[in-house]
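Translate structure to sequence.
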């Protein structure tokens, strides 16, 4: 009975982590560039009561075995980097990556972080920054006298300055990063990811080249969370949690039966 309680307790803990992951997905259903997570589990070690192939008294090898498992454990919360819902904003500073790739953001400590959130702004000096004020890398600075700007599919940033509306000036080139294993990136919060040993080193390139997606200006990539799927997963996790709790209750009742036995 003690084994059953421990096994069921591990199941309850695993489903609690599953619910936590689902809750975070639903909380970020409207977060720009958010990528849904899903929990992955593995069964724990097995106690081999009777090993397979054991020879009985008549010299016959038994074709079966007796093994008792000890529950479940959480092994990963993987990110799904499929394309999210596309919305049109008509804002030239709103950029979306169609396909693989990440924007590079220069952090205050000088390191780089990576993001799918392309809702950019301008700071007081005309630098292209994200909502937290982190600069896009390579740095793009919009002239103060620019009256119009645009970003091409291949990441070329162009402006038209006041008094020279006939000429389009190229002022910069966007460079994106992709990774051998995007799922291995470490989530930092703030719609940012950082490189990890599991992700591999970033591979840099211009949009539209070397397996990197193209840029769509005036569009944003919303979360790729599907609320219906998350609600179904939540119901499934809740039922599994309830069944594990009932297993503990049943094991406790069986122990009570044993305790009531009289000689």
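Result:
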């Amino acid at each position: 009975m003690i084994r059953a309680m421990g096994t069921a307790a591990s199941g309850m803990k695993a489903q609690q982590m599953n619910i936590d992951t689902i809750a975070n997905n639903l909380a970020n259903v409207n977060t720009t560039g958010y990528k849904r997570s899903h929990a992955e589990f593995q069964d724990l070690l097995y106690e081999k009561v009777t090993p397979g192939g054991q020879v009985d008294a008549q010299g016959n090898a038994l074709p079966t075995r007796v093994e008792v498992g000890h529950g479940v454990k959480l092994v990963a919360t993987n990110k799904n980097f499929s394309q999210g819902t596309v919305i049109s904003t008509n804002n030239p500073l709103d950029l979306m990556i169609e396909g693989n790739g990440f924007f590079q953001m220069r952090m205050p400590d000088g390191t780089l972080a990576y993001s799918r959130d392309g809702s950019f702004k301008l700071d007081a000096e005309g630098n292209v920054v994200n909502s937290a004020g982190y600069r896009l890398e390579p740095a793009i600075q919009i002239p103060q006298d620019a009256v119009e700007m645009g970003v091409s599919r291949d990441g070329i940033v162009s402006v038209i300055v006041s008094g020279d509306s006939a000429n389009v000036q190229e002022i910069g080139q966007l460079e994106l990063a992709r990774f051998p294993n995007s799922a291995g990136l470490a989530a930092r919060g703030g719609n940012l990811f950082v490189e990890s040993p599991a992700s591999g080193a970033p591979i840099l390139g211009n949009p539209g080249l070397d397996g990197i997606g193209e840029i769509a200006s005036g569009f944003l990539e919303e979360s790729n969370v599907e609320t219906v799927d998350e609600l179904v997963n939540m119901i499934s996790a809740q039922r599994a949690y309830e069944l594990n709790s009932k297993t503990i209750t049943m094991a406790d009742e069986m122990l009570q039966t044993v305790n009531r036995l009289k000689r």
